[in-house]
């Protein structure tokens, strides 16, 4: 018998589902019995082990360098660094809790979790070094502390990534999850399923859709994102709700019908109560962006309100300082690369080295964006961007530039001019922006960037405006630390040779 749940769908004549069968392998059943401990308890234990390991590695690395290279003042007693390990563990764990790293939800591409780790390590470093400065009786080696913090930053990210993969595996196998159906196979329902897939720690495994449109019954709904993949059947409509819940062993329903009447929602809710099916529903916010909605309580009465949309001035100032510093360093360090690429572009085909194109920036302001020319000079200047290396408009050297994203390097000068940032949504051409919806225009609230969440995602080969969720997340959460996380992920992607395609 297979070691995973599987769906066998039988349809009647009009396409609705007569019944489904769930098959769960014996190993999966056994795993469910031996994993009574909560995910957060396992994470907490793993964090403690990694913190202790990182501190000991810092201590060992110091003595390794001291013994072999003479770096450091003297050998350090282990006992006092065991005490420091305990202090560091308490600080890190308290900050993890405060930053929400033990909540059951996750963000796009785990970016929020990575940012939380950076924050926790940074604040811990600040506290430890401040304490060593003001309290003279503290004699900890700053080198050991520095080495330990570097190990912490690296190993905590690795540990959390492995934990995510483990939770993802358990989620797919149906271990420790609640099975659920989603009523509404439209855009809102698909977005809801995508969030369940993205956040396996939520513990909700979507088994299929229900919908009032009989034309969808029996069809498979696939994700539009390559970052979060799923494929689920539409199991019928209102009359098939009980059969679908029983057949898929689902005990929860998520109602995602933002455009239907309140009467229809009430009818579905009453039916859920009659068949003892737990329900949740997404309210109709009249096409208002969900990212702007906050929930608050007024003496026990739940209220929906609009969150204040304002980036702190200090965050903007630090982001600009980060942009200028990185841009100046990049120009100095990469000047030989600039020269070599300029020669290759010039020899590859007739025409200028740089390609200049008008793009839309912050608040809709137009600016000239620079790139190394990767297409022949007779190619239309304002046309749909190539999405394949076989596009005849691309020069031989252009294929290499696009694959490695090196064609974007001249945009460093756009950063110096203040038109762009190192990190932000990609700027688009005016004819595309003219077709933006009000939600898509939210991208223009921040400066466009050379790299960003969409650029490092698995959906980067698809149109930017069709993957608006990445940019909306960045707009709502922009900060210098988030920029650093995205820059590091970008560097890793370039090293792996993962460019535009």
Helix content: 40-55%
N to C succession of SSEs: EEHHHHHEHEEEHEHEEEHHEEHHEHEHH
Overall tally of structural domains: 3
Radius of gyration: 27 Å
Strand content: 5-15%
Biggest sheet architecture: 4 strands, parallel
- The separation of the N and C termini measures 39 Å
- Multimeric state: single chain
Textual characterization of the structure:
The chain folds into three domains: 39-170, no CATH class; 179-284, 3-Layer(aba) Sandwich (Rossmann fold), CATH 3.40.50; 313-495, no CATH class. Helices cover 46% and strands 14% of the residues. It has helices at 26-34, 39-69, 78-98, 111-134, 142-172, 187-198, 241-247, 262-274, 313-333, 335-348, 396-404, 411-417, 430-433, 468-477, 480-495, and strands at 7-11, 17-22, 178-183, 204-210, 220-222, 231-233, 252-255, 278-281, 293-298, 301-306, 354-360, 366-372, 421-423, 449-451. The strands form six sheets. It has a four-stranded parallel beta sheet, sandwiched between helices. A two-stranded antiparallel sheet has the order 1-2. Helix 4 packs antiparallel against helix 5, helix 9 crosses helix 10 and helix 9 crosses helix 12 (411-417). Residues 1-36 have low confidence and may be disordered.
Structure described in brief:
This protein is an alpha/beta fold.
Please specify the SSE layout and strand pairing:
Blueprint: E1 7-11, E2 17-22, H1 26-34, H2 39-69, H3 78-98, H4 111-134, H5 142-172, E3 178-183, H6 187-198, E4 204-210, E5 220-222, E6 231-233, H7 241-247, E7 252-255, H8 262-274, E8 278-281, E9 293-298, E10 301-306, H9 313-333, H10 335-348, E11 354-360, E12 366-372, H11 396-404, H12 411-417, E13 421-423, H13 430-433, E14 449-451, H14 468-477, H15 480-495
Parallel strand pairs: 3-4, 3-7, 7-8, 13-14
Antiparallel strand pairs: 1-2, 5-6, 9-10, 11-12
Helix pairs in contact: 2-3, 2-5, 3-4, 4-5, 4-15, 9-10, 9-12
């Amino acid at each position: 018998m297979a070691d995973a749940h599987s769906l066998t769908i039988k349809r009647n004549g009009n396409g609705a589902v007569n019944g489904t069968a769930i098959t769960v392998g014996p190993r999966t059943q056994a795993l469910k019995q031996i994993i009574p401990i909560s995910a957060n308890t396992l994470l907490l234990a793993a964090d403690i082990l990694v913190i202790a390991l990182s501190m000991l590695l810092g201590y060992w690395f110091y003595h390794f360098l001291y013994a072999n290279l003479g770096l450091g003042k003297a050998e350090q007693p282990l006992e006092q660094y065991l005490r420091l390990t305990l202090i560091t563990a308490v600080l890190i764990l308290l900050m993890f809790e405060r930053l929400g790293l033990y909540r059951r939800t996750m963000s796009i591409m785990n970016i929020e979790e990575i940012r939380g780790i950076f924050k926790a390590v940074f604040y811990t470093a600040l506290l430890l070094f401040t304490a060593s400065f003001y309290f003279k009786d503290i004699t900890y080696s700053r080198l050991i502390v520095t080495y330990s913090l570097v190990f912490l930053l690296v190993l905590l990210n690795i540990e959390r990534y492995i934990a995510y993969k483990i939770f993802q595996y358990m989620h797919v196998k149906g271990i420790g999850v609640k099975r659920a159906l989603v009523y509404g196979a439209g855009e809102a329902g698909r977005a809801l399923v995508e969030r369940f897939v993205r956040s396996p720690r939520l513990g909700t495994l979507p088994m299929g859709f229900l919908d009032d449109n009989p034309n969808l019954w029996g069809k498979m709904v696939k994700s539009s994102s390559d970052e979060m993949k799923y494929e689920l059947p539409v199991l019928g409509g209102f009359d098939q709700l009980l059969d679908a819940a029983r057949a898929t062993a689902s005990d929860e329903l998520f109602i995602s019908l933002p455009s239907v009447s309140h009467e229809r929602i009430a009818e579905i809710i009453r039916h859920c109560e009659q068949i003892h099916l737990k329900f949740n529903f997404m309210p109709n916010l009249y096409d208002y962006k969900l990212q702007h909605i906050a929930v608050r309580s007024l003496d026990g009465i739940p209220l929906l309100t609009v969150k204040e949309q304002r980036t702190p001035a200090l965050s903007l100032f630090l982001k600009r300082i980060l942009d200028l510093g990185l841009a100046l360093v990049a120009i100095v360090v990469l000047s030989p690369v600039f020269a070599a690429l300029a020669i290759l572009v010039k020899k590859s085909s007739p025409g200028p080295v740089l390609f200049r194109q008008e793009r839309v920036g912050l608040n809709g302001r137009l600016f000239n964006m620079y790139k190394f020319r990767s297409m022949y000079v007779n190619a239309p200047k304002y046309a749909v961007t190539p999405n394949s290396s076989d596009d005849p408009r691309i020069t031989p050297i252009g294929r290499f530039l696009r694959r490695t994203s090196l064609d974007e390097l001249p945009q460093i000068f756009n950063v110096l001019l203040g038109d762009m940032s190192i990190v932000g949504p990609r700027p688009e051409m005016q004819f595309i922006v003219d077709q933006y919806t009000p939600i898509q225009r939210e991208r223009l609230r921040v400066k466009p960037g050379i790299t960003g969440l969409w650029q490092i995602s698995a959906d980067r080969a698809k149109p930017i405006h069709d993957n608006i969720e990445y940019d909306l997340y960045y707009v709502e959460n922009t900060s210098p630390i988030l920029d650093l996380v995205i820059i590091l992920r970008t560097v890793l992607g370039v090293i792996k040779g993962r460019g535009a395609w």
